[in-house]
Amino acid sequence: MKHKLWSLLIVAALVGVVLGAGGTLLAQKVFRPGQAGITPKQDGPLVSIGEFTVNLRGGAFLKTSITLEGTDAAAGPILQAKADFLKDKVNTVLSNKSLADVETPAAREILRRELLSQLNQVADGYIRNVLFLSFIYQ
């Protein structure tokens, strides 16, 4: 009788260990998918398109330096080849803004999204992000 009890306890312990290990592995795959073989988003190439100083509507001015993040490795050469067209578009967008359109963080985020949209029209959708490296207005 004691032999059956010990056998039953050993089997129960083994089942518990197997279920615990299996549950842990499953939880890691479900709740931490980055470690389960899914590759994280890769940053695209960064292309500086320079510094811009523009007169804003109403008499203020803006000085900013802009870098573009491409969508993939192929974007870098395309963005560099279209740099002059991209700079022209940036000047056009910025010179149509007022001081109120650039002075708050929320306004800058709206400006970033507008530039992204306008520049992607020139760059055939190869731009993932617009980065303001400096941003001075007066």
From TrEMBL:
Organism listed in the record: Acididesulfobacillus acetoxydans
Similarity comment: family membership: Belongs to the FliL family.
Name of this chain's protein: Flagellar protein FliL
Taxonomic lineage from the root: Bacteria, Bacillati, Bacillota, Clostridia, Eubacteriales
Alphabetical keyword list: Cell membrane, Cell projection, Chemotaxis, Cilium, Flagellar rotation, Flagellum, Membrane, Transmembrane, Transmembrane helix
Transmembrane regions: none
Protein's job: Controls the rotational direction of flagella during chemotaxis.
Keyword Transmembrane helix: yes
Membrane topology term: Single-pass membrane protein
Any one of the GO BP annotations: bacterial-type flagellum-dependent swarming motility
Pfam families membership: FliL (PF03748)
Cellular component GO terms, alphabetical: bacterial-type flagellum basal body; plasma membrane
InterPro entries: FliL
Location within or outside the cell: Cell membrane
